[in-house]
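Sat 14:20. Reprocessing the chain from the morning session after the first attempt stalled halfway. Input below, unchanged.
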Amino acid sequence: MSAPSPDREAPWHAGWKSAQLLFRPGFVLQMAALGLVLSYYYLPSAHHLFDEVARWRTEGGYVFSALASAICGGLLPFLYLRATAAHAKAYPWSHLVFFTMFWAWKGAEVDLLYRTLAKLYGNGTGAGTILRKVVTDLLGFNVFYATPVGNLIFAWKDAGFRWSPVRADVRAGRWYSRRVFPVLISVWALWAPIVTCIYSLPAALQIPLFNVVLCFWSLLFAHITTHQHRGNT
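Finished this time. Tokens:
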């Protein structure tokens, strides 16, 4: 695997193309998240189900978050990718461990993020509290940590679990703008409305809603990063 050269396509343009591809499925997902929030607040018959899910989350703690994310972000998307002819060779069974472990870690990590934001800004669901959490999540956590670290880890996987090609790519120059920024545009386009919905719910229901969205996001993130790392080598 040779060291990639800086991409000719403008980073914002690559990210915008991904966001355009996401528009229809992303809009459906955003409406589903909004529907769940509206059901919680305006559909009394659904309260029993929400209460049960909240109980599982509260009693399970970080273990619940890790296991649910491993299934929703790792196992189910991997099985889909594996069953898709165009992706079968790109996702051998050995990658199942990677996907489940990565998303288990991310599930616990996001749980910690939500708990930390609750301590910083409170558990209220007012507009000001929600806005502060959304800004910190998308413009802080994702910009400086989640997206670049996730990109590096998926690059390591796509390089056959070798770090030397990843280091070569970073040293090729403009790594953040080439690799991270296009993904961030997709993150902002898809997740801004969704995290607004997530932070509109009580703390015990935030991780469950995150996991509803995670199946789709895991597929998208795998597609974008794999296209980047294999299409430019």
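The chain has one domain: 11-39+46-231.
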